[in-house]
Each structure stands twice: as structure tokens, then as C-alpha cells.
Amino acid sequence: MLKALFALPSTVWLLGLVSFFNDAASDLVYPLLPLYLASVLMAGPKALGIIEGIAEATGSLLKLFAGVLADKTRSTKYWVVGGYSLAALGRPFLALAGSWPTVLVLRFADRVGKGLRSSPRDAMLALSVAPHQRGLAFGFHRALDNAGAVVGPLLAAWLLYRGMPIRDILLWTLVPGVITVGLTLYIREPHREMPLHKPAFSWTMQGFPPVFKRYLLVLALFTLGNSSNMFLLLRAREMGLTESQVPLLWALASGMAMLFSTPLSALSDRLGRTRLIVGGWAVYGAFYLLLGLNGQNLWLLWPLFAFYGLFMAATEGAEKALVADLAPKELLGTAYGWFNLTAGVMLLPASVLFGWLWQTFSPEWAFGFSASCAILAAFLLKFWVPTQSGHTP
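Given the sequence above, the corresponding C-alpha cells read:
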């Protein structure tokens, strides 16, 4: 495994380190934002909902836009550098905000940065490695990304424990931001063959094989049952877990994803993407069923969330590697744009539906619905989206 990792191109390593430092800064801010709005700017949940709703919706739409333009301009690096720079510069200015509309503008800028960089970055990863290395490359990238998601909240908790004011913590995000931007400047643009005709964008997805379109439909079904992870933490809190233990529970899931993303995604290079994703979605379904039916056994939460981390490790890298297996090389940026848009847009109805089922019926109904979506999606992926093992069909 180590030999295979060191054989990966420098682009993969640099993008992994970029994601680590960027996510460490981003996930340091994320848990502090509700506290900052409430205790410093005296804004409530309504303001938080407006901020996050507008920011996330914008980011999802821009992922498609940036992917299309990356294909048209035959360039991915400038989008990656620009996207990470926008986010890195915006976070420290949160400390200077005097009202929640200012926070909205800065969070908007942060999500715009994510929207501009995500699809070109994924295309850059896919173009930088051979087909038999895609699972390993995307898994390694997700491992470092999840490592940042572990380090960020733990660092925020430690700084708060030491008594550092929230404004000062936000200012310190400039340090990992500068490192992030500096690393992106060293990334090399991967070689792309010049097509005979520049790809034209089509809302009907002309130029993509039917198998890729079916994959997106199945992904949309799975995502319909994949609501916000905040519901998982709410369930744990409702069952009686203390407030101080809830972040540790999520850190456990992220830690498991960090440890197992690389080996499990690399396994998809040998066993095939579909097998690994189907297995991961089945684990997801079992997790949701057990969490929904478990009403009293607090000790069971810890192995269950570790189990959830394995689902993340098995699917996050393999799902993205499968995009490169199914899509034409000259349309990779657009393909990742459609992939990210599908996953992003479906999160809103998924969370609304999950919350409605929980409040109208019971948590068991909500978790049962999500588990059903996952199992049905796994079945369709297995029998309706035929692929060859690890390579382009």
C-alpha cells in the first residue's frame, strides 16, 4: 500500500495536502459559527438557516458551471487556485463582521469558492492518474480531507478550552488558508488531449453514455435518503448522549473514514467500483435501521458511528472514481459537475423529508425511509448500472 501511495503523482499529494489544510480551517469555523452568531452578533437560528441555505445552494449550482468551463477552457488549475483562494481569504474576515448579513456575504464567498474548485479538482485528480489508480487516488484524497475534518473541530475545542475569544480563533484561520493557497500554486496542470471539437454543454447531457445517466439517477435516489448528518447527532443527543460527547461521536466517524478511505477505495481498483459502493450503501442502510430502532442503548452508538465511518470510507472515493470510469475524458469536468450537482441539490429535499417524517410520525419512520432508499439504490446500482471491474466500460 505504501509503495502504491508513493507512486502516485505529486499532483495527488498536493491536492490531498491542500484539502487537509483547507478542511482543517473550514471545520474549525463550522462548529463555531452558530456560537459566534448567537453570542457575539446576537442573531438566532433563522439567520443561521438563511446563511447556510443560500450558501450551500449557490455552491451546488456553481459546481456544474465550473466543471463545464474547465472543459471548455481545457484548464483545471486556475479554477482550483481561485476557488481555494476565495475561501481562504474570506474566513478570517468573519472575525471583523459586525452583523449577520456580513457573515452571509462571507459564507457566500466561501461556498462560491467551493463551487468553483470542486468539479475541476476532481477532474484534475482523475486526469493525473491511470485508470487502475483512480480508486487509490480518490481514497487518499478523501483520507486527508477527513483528517482535516478531525483536526479542525478538535483544535477549535482546545482553543475554546484555553479561553481564546472566538474572534481571535477566526483570525487564526488565515494561517492554514495561506498554506492552502501556497500549495495550490505548485500544482501542475495535467495533460489533456485537444479534442477535434470543443464540447458543447447540453441540459439533456448529450455526449454522455446512458450508463452514466443511470448512475446519476441511482445516486439521486440514494441521496434522497442521505439527509443532513446533523440528524444523526440529534438522534444521539435525543437518546441521552451528553453535549460534550456528541462532537467526539462525530470525530470517531471522521477518524474511521480517515483511516480506511485509502485502503478501501484502493480495493475498488481490483474488485470494481460497483461492488464496493453497493457494499457501502448496504452498510449505510443497516446503520440507519439500527440507529432508528435503537432507543436506549447508548453504548451501541459508538460502534454504530464507527460503522458509519466505514461507509464513508468505502463510498466517498469509489463514487468519484466511478464517474471517471463512465464519462468521456473530454467531458470529465462537466461529468463531475453533474455528479456534484446531483448530490448537492438532493440534500435539501432529503433533509426536509427526513425532518417531516421524524416530526409527523416518528424517528423510526424517518430512519426506515433512508435505509429503504439506500437498499433500493444499492440494488439498482448492482443490476441497472453495469460496469467492468475498475475500468471504463
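Residues 10-186 form a domain with the Growth Hormone; Chain: A; fold (CATH 1.20.1250.20). Try to locate this feature in the C-alpha cell string yourself.
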